[in-house]
User: Fold Iron-binding zinc finger CDGSH type domain-containing protein from Streptomyces mashuensis.
Amino acid sequence: MAGAPPPDERPARRVWHDPGGPVVIEGPVEVVMDDGSVVRSDRPVVAVCTCRRSRILPWCDTSHRERPGPAPPSGGRERDAQ
Ligand code: FES
Assistant:
């Protein structure tokens, strides 16, 4: 019988975007990197870089504050979970 799927009982994970900055997510968080590896943060709130300038990708290191504007094409350096 077709119909709507049952509602998901898990609590929704809250995500918000800091304009010009990171996406902030209630942790823990796992991020799948471009190479397929997975990095994890168990912090209660995690800032994921959207500008690609961070020296600790995928996490925001506040580098977006230093030079607003478009991200460089190569992005920043990647780092394992913190
Ligand atoms: S969003 Fe903060 S360093 Fe990229």
